[in-house]
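Researcher: Let's run the pair from yesterday's discussion. Sequence first, then tokens, for each.
Model: Starting with the first of the pair.
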Amino acid sequence: MSAASVERHLGSRPLITQANRLMDRNPGYRVEIIGDQILVSPPPDGPHARVLTKLMRPFVAAGLDDGPTEVLQGVGLWLPTGTEDYAIPDLAVVDADLDAHFVEFNCYDPVCFRLVLEVTSSNYETDLRTKVATYAEAKIPVYVIVNRRHDRLHVLTGPDGGDYTTHRVHSPGERVTLPGSLGAEVALDVAEVLAAGRHRTAPGQD
């Protein structure tokens, strides 16, 4: 897999120090640094977690979690967009030699990431805008967004500078086959994935 090289910037880490403090004070929150800005996301709700469980199954069934790749949740991705930048995608398909690409702060070089996936929460614009440019800059080959706010599934491919050359938006009723660059064929039922991300009606409620 090809990607922009990541330089380790030594010295003081004021933003990472602040990020550590925020994590200590806000257990369960996701803290990331993108474009030298600290982003704080609330703990995921039940439907958010349910989507990830639902999505793990086709990736594992395709054999992507056994052999040359792994399927991981919440693994840190070191970014080339700032001296302390890193992201924590909800789900990633990575090369099995991930440990050989450790950079720092529990993060890994983007060279070993084949796919990243985000499930939108209240700060959905981060996933739909900020992270599109960020992941493209890091040359992540495939970026998938489960857009719970607008009931869509986005598949972005062909990173080129700060954007992706292809951005396809899929609606319920479609079945999407992800790029073969992952190492196996993975097909997603859009309606099934999006349904998992909705709050369920309690028994006795309309």
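Model: Moving on to the second of the pair.
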Amino acid sequence: MPHPAIDYPAFGPEIRCPHCHRTISALFLTDTYLCPRHGAFEVSPKGELIHVPSGRCWHQWEGLWYRQHIHIDGLRFEIGEALDQLSRQGRRATQITIAQRYQTLFEGGLGRESPSIKRLYPLGHKLFGIPLLFSPTPQVDLRWTSVNFELTTVVDTAAQLSYPRFRTR
């Protein structure tokens, strides 16, 4: 039987801070990681990373941290940031797939925001004018236990044409 101290720290001696993406170290013989900028992160018994000062929770999937949202506004903000980043890359989203665990939270938010949403989009929901789908269950695709959303993208030739090119002398 392995020695219990070998399992510490849970995610290895270093991780990347979920906020600032700096490499942060684990405290000796604990499941706590300390970011000089954002404070302590503890590993819960379920294997989640919890930010001690705020109580926010992250799951890791393929080396990346995904914040687990409890309010629709946080998820919308994260999707909005991803769409802005796509725009700066000359791409646009044609579809948003959101983890099924947010379906009830999200549909409640859509209904609260716009009472005529079903009349406007009778065949499905839209967010930021982009068609919205919900993911398969985590039993079908395990990554959806951690991943919050996925964007289907294409190159946006209109966006590339709309920005004038400036000459520097």
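Researcher: Give me one sentence on the second I can quote.
Model: The chain has four helices and eleven strands.
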